[in-house]
Design goal:
There is one protein chain. The protein is mainly α. The protein has a single domain, classed as Ammonium transporter fold. Helix 1 runs antiparallel to helix 9. The longest helix is centred in the N-terminal third of the chain and has 23 residues. The model has no long low-confidence stretch (mean pLDDT 85).
């Protein structure tokens, strides 16, 4: 028997999952919400999603040609970005605006930083933030759900959170504009992918069963928003079911690239996302805060990882090492 030791660099344990398999699973998990958006808002929802996905894929290929990188469009990450971006848009969003958002997401936020695995912000959310700041009227032009294939009702309507915000400014009562079942099934105005919470939860369950996403970020994200809402006297269940909270918690805050990888880091990240979301909803000028909360915590993700990652044997933690260096300098 050969007793020679084989020495190699890490990693020593490998998993069958790769980027393509993960992105394929995420695309499958988003399918119920996509179908629900088409049923709720009509066929134009499918057109917005298609434009966002096609432009994302084309931009990815052209960007990699320009930067002379390997063409990796088969990994499916551009498709996922396109779907998630479309999910944050109103159904009446001009198609050129959806295309512009896809270009921003892929070229400026993803490829300009080095491609998949190198971007510091979630591409879909960063693109939505750019579109919202550039075209605030179009990006908040919610439409009344029609719950019928083939027809789009262009009647403008305020979102559930927007109605609560306006009622609070006017000193109105604390009555809820929509029932829990309406919020769960998507019979409310909103963006394409955030309305039908039942479809989103179905896709999220699939990802958790496949162990594609970890429970820590979604649970702490949703839990902190619900708890803080309860503390200030607001309905916690309405806070969780309204807006894009479930979409953001399960499908955007859990992004492998822009979220922490350690268990404790994910708990802190989720709590931070929930706290910032609550603060924006409660005291900010926008009725919704999920997008900016996740982008803000994306900035802090490297710092969180620095202080919570397991210490290697014989190496001091970041804070202690910094103190030792300062003490030595004195």
């Amino acid at each position: 028997m050969d007793s020679t030791f084989i020495v190699s660099v890490s990693p020593h344990l490998r998993d069958r999952e790769n980027a393509a398999r993960v992105m394929r699973a995420v695309s499958i998990s988003l399918t119920p919400a996509a179908l629900a958006s088409i049923y709720i808002f009509g066929w134009r929802a499918a057109l917005v999603i298609a434009v966002s996905v096609v432009v994302s894929v084309i931009t990815e290929v052209l960007s990699q040609l320009v930067f002379k990188r390997e063409i990796t469009v088969r990994d499916g990450s551009a498709v996922v970005t396109g779907i998630l971006l479309a999910f944050t848009l109103p159904v009446q969003t001009p198609l050129w605006m959806a295309a512009a958002g896809a270009f921003v997401a892929i070229f400026l936020v993803k490829q300009l930083f080095g491609g998949i695995g190198h971007n510091i912000f979630n591409p879909a959310l960063a693109a939505r933030a750019v579109l919202l700041s550039s075209f605030p009227v179009a990006m908040t032009a919610w439409s009344t759900p029609v719950l019928s294939l083939g027809r789009v009702d262009a009647t403008a309507a305020a979102s559930a959170l927007g109605m609560v915000k306006e009622a609070a400014k006017a000193g109105g009562g604390a009555g809820l504009p929509y029932g829990y079942l309406d919020l769960l099934l998507g019979a409310v105005p909103g963006s394409l992918g955030e309305t039908c919470k039942a479809a989103l939860l179905l896709g999220a369950a699939f990802l958790m069963i496949r162990r594609i996403i970890d429970w820590r970020i979604p649970v702490t994200f949703l839990g902190s928003v619900g708890l803080l809402s309860f503390i200030v006297g607001k309905d916690p269940l309405f806070a969780v079911l309204s807006g894009g909270l479930i979409l953001g918690a399960f499908f955007m805050a859990t992004d492998y690239v822009t979220a922490p990888t350690t268990p404790n880091g994910r708990l802190i990240f989720g709590l931070g996302c929930g706290a910032v979301t609550f603060l924006i909803r409660q005291y900010g000028g926008f009725p919704e805060g999920v997008c900016y909360a996740i982008l803000f915590m994306n900035c802090l993700s490297p710092l969180i990882e620095l202080y919570v990652r397991p210490r290697r044997f014989g190496v001091a933690r970041a804070g202690r090492r910094s103190a030792e260096l300062k003490g030595g300098a004195k």
